[in-house]
Amino acid sequence: MRLGSLRQLILGCFFVALVPLAALLWQSQTDLAKVSQLTVTETQHIASLVSKVQQLESASIVLERALRQYQVLKNDVAAGLVENAIGRFSEQHHAICDVEKRINGCVRLQQTVANLRGFRSFEHSDMLPNQLTLLRQQLADIDVSVDDAIAARLVTQQADVSAMQVRQTWLSALLVSISLALILLGSQLVVNPVRKLKLIIKMLARQQGKLPPLSTKAPRELAGVERDLHWLGERLAQLEHIRTALLRHAAHELKTPLASMKEGCALLSDGLVGTLSEPQQEVMSLINASTTRLNTLIERLLDYNLLLQQAQPKFKLVDVDLMVNQCIGDYKLALQKHSLDINLSIKHIIADEELLRRILDNLVSNAVAHGALDRTIHIRVSVEDEFACIDVANDGKKIPKDKVSTLFEPFIRGEGTRNDNVIGTGLGLSIVADCARIMHGDATVIDVDYADVCFRVRIPQQEEK
Fold it and tell me: What gap in Å lies between CA 426 and CA 345, rounded to an integer?
C-alpha cells in the first residue's frame, strides 16, 4: 500500500495522535462535571438537612413553651396552641427522618411526640418535665446522628472523588501512552524511508554494489527521491563503465605506437641507421626520457584501471612486518637521502594483501617524492578501536586545510616540486583511498607531533569474521 504525500502523512499522524488526547480531554471534562454535580448535590443536601434540624429545634422550643403555658392556664386556647406546636414539630421531625434514613432516634422521638399528644391527661406535675427532658435528650441524639450522617456522606463523597481521580490517572496514562505510540509509529513511517535514502547515498558514494529495491510504502516525495537516487546510481554505473573502458582502451591503444617509438629510438641511439651527431644524440636522449615517462604514465593508468575493477577484497592475515620491509627494499635507492623510523606495534593485520601492498607502495613513494631531504620518514602500524591504522609521515611543506578534501581525488597533484623532478600523475593518493575504500576503510590526513605531514589509512579488523 502506497502512502500519500509527506504532508498528508504528517498531518494524518498528527490528527491520529490527537484522538486519544481528545478522548482524554472529553473524559476529564465529563469527570469534572460529575464531581461538580456531586459537590453541588451534597452541599444542597447537607444545607437542607442542617436547616431542617434548626427548624426542628425551633419547633421544639415553641412546643415546650406551649406545653408550659397549658400547664398554667389549663384552657382550650392554650390546648389549641399545644396541638398546633405538636403538629409543626411532627412535620419537621418527619421531614428530617424521611430525607436522611441514617439518623438514629427517629422512632424514639416519634414515641415521645405521641406521648406529648396526651398532655391533657398528665395528672402528676412531674410528668411534663420528664417528657420535655426526654424530648431534649432525643433532640440532642438526633443532632449527633445528623452530624455523623453528614460526616459519613462527606467520607463517601471523598472516596468517590478519590476513585474518580485514580481512574482518571490510569486513563490519562493509557491514552498518553497510546498517543506516544502513535507518534512513534508515525515518525517511524518517515524515518525509515529517510534512513533508506541515507543508506542509498552512502552506497552511491562508496560504490558498494547493488542498491536496495524501491520502497512500496514510502510517502510520494521520499519515494520520488529514492527513484531519482536509483536513476543516479544507474547513471553513475554507466559513467564508471565508460571511464573504465576509456582508460582500458586508451592505455592499450597507446602501447602500440609507444612500442614503435621506443624501438625507433633504440635503433637511432644504437647508430644502426647512421651515426648521430652530438646535438642529435642529445635530442634522442630527450625523446627516450619522454617515451619512458609516457610508458610509466600508461602503466599507472592500467594499474588504476585494474584497481577500479576489483570489487571484492580477499581478506586474510597479512605479515605487515614483511610487507613493510619488502616495500622499503623496493625504494632502497630513493631512501638513501632519508632516514627511517619504523614502529610496528602489531606484526599481522587482516587485509587484502595486494591492496595493502599498493597502499604502502604509494604512501612510501609519496613520502620519498615530497618529503624534505635528509629528514626522517616515519612508518607506524597499530590497532585502535578494531581498526588497523597505517601511518606514513614525513617532514616538509604542510598541506593546507582547504586542499585536504580534494587530495585523494584522481589526477589531483600536490603543490611544489618533487624530489625526483618527475611530473606526477595525481593517481597515487587516489589509489590509496580507493584501496582503503574497497577494504571498507578510509584514508585521511592527520596531525602528529613528530612530523609535518602524516597520512593514515584505517582498515577494519572484523572482516575475517
Answer: 31
Question: Residue 458 corresponds to which amino acid?
Answer: R
Q: Whole-angstrom Cα distance, residue 316 to residue 327?
A: 19
3-class DSSP assignment, residue 388: strand
Compute how many other C-beta atoms are within 10 angstroms of the C-beta atom of residue 380: 18
Beta-bridge mates of residue 343: 380
Assess contact for 330 and 296: CB atoms under 8 A: no
Query: How many CB atoms lie under 10 A from the CB of residue 35?
Result: 16
* Whether 179 contacts 9, CB under 8 Å: no
**DSSP 3-state assignment of 210?**
coil
User: For the ranges 295-304, 347-356, 438-447, which has the lowest average pLDDT?
Assistant: 295-304
Q: Could you give phi then psi for residue 338, rounded to 5 degrees?
A: -135, 160
pLDDT in tens, 421-432: 455 566 778 888
Count of residues in the chain: 465
Cell triple for residue 67?
Answer: 406545653
**Cα separation values, 60 from 37, 67, 112, Å:** 34, 10, 12
Residue 217 in contact with residue 2, Cβ under 8 Å? yes
d(CA 393, CA 364): 9
Q: How far is CA 143 from CA 33, 302, 461, in A?
A: 32, 113, 90
Q: For residue 363, what is its C-alpha cell?
A: 604512501
Would you call 195 helix, strand, or coil by DSSP?
A: helix
Please give the Cα distance from 407 to 454 (Å, whole number).
Answer: 13
- Amino acid 88 reads R
Asked if the model's pLDDT at residue 159 lies above 70, the reply is yes
Is the CB of residue 370 less than 8 Å from the CB of residue 432?
A: no
CA–CA gap between residue 338 and residue 372 (Å, rounded): 8
Q: pTM value?
A: 0.46
Residue 459: φ, ψ to 5°: -125, 120
Nearest by Cα to 363 from 456, 270, 464, 289: 456
